[in-house]
Design brief:
six-stranded parallel β-sheet; alpha/beta; 44% helix; 10 helices; five-stranded parallel β-sheet; 302 residues; 11 strands
Length: 302
């Protein structure tokens, strides 16, 4: 995990704990002092994130000494690919009497968690989910701490305009993250009047535990046949590794190609590693990532 990513998560976790504890204090309750932390076992930043949430807990309790508010973090891990395991872990936190839940999972997992916690009026704070469609009337207790995909789409559009890249291809996983991010970008392009852009192709590939090599190759063939040299990859980090490896084998990572990757990859770039080794063909990837204001009071306080 990069230094800036560590700082980002510390800020997010600290703000989440402080926000929830403020609500707890406002209610004047001394019993509902437990906050849940819900994360998948497969999260490649698991150990770092567990240390960071522990730091946020200690930091808050140390700073609130002498007050009536002290919090305890209850941690539950689940199998990311098992809906049953996610439901069981979430319900286990409810049984423990948590006042609220913090989760560093993606949009798809967050939606399932919110559907369980929402009817119980238990706040769920999502650290990294960016799906703009995830907020529904039935999920009023869900709070997103990261910018939604439309802001990322705006940043990518500005990048394309700056370099004069008017013909692009989009490629995405068929998950909620991929489909919603592509929709956000396509909608933004339709509203763009100052510059004319052309999307030459926008294939989806299957995002699952076992990446289908045939499916990946077919997806890359569509991109290559489009003759587009600027490709925007919208998927989770765990899927990008296999796709970029095959793209390199098809000579699509060579000079002349431009690959722009989204925040789901830049925030979890360790997923691209091969036994802690990053291949040379990653050099030149352009990544979009949320801004960390290093001049802010909160940053300097760290």
């Amino acid at each position: 995990m990069s230094v800036l990513n560590v700082v980002r998560h510390i800020l997010l976790f600290t703000h989440a704990v402080s926000f929830l504890s403020g609500r707890l204090n406002a209610r004047g309750s001394n019993n509902a002092s437990k906050i849940g932390f819900l994360m998948s076992k497969e999260n490649q930043q698991k150990n770092n994130l567990l240390k960071l949430i522990s730091f946020a807990e200690q930091n808050f309790n140390n700073s609130s000494r002498g007050t009536q508010v002290e919090i305890e973090i209850a941690i539950k891990l689940f199998d990311e690919y098992s809906l049953y395991d996610l439901v069981e872990a979430t319900c286990s936190l409810v049984d423990e009497g948590v006042f609220a839940v913090i989760s560093p999972q993606g949009s798809e997992n967050i939606a399932d968690q919110a559907d369980i916690l929402g009817p119980l009026d238990i706040p769920l704070l999502s650290v990294v989910a960016t799906d703009p469609q995830i907020k529904k009337l039935s999920r009023q207790s869900l709070q997103l701490l990261s910018p939604v995909d439309k802001h990322q789409a705006r940043a990518i559009l500005d990048l394309l305009k700056f370099y004069g890249w008017h013909e692009v291809s989009l490629v995405a996983s068929d998950t909620n993250y991929g489909t919603n991010a592509i929709n956000a970008f396509q909608q933004l392009l339709t509203l763009e009047t100052s510059t004319k852009f052309s999307i030459k192709s926008s294939p989806f590939f299957k995002g699952n535990t076992e990446m289908d090599k045939t499916d990946i190759l077919n997806t890359l063939k569509i991109l290559k046949n489009s003759l587009t040299r600027v490709i925007i990859l919208i998927c989770e980090g765990k899927y990008a590794k296999a796709l970029l490896e095959e793209a390199n084998n098809m000579d699509m990572m060579s000079p002349g190609y431009v690959w722009i990757v989204t925040d789901a990859i830049t925030s979890n770039f360790q997923a691209l590693a091969f036994d802690n080794y990053f291949p040379a063909y990653y050099e030149g990837l352009i990544g979009i990532s949320p801004l960390i204001n290093t001049k802010s009071t909160d940053y300097k306080a760290l």
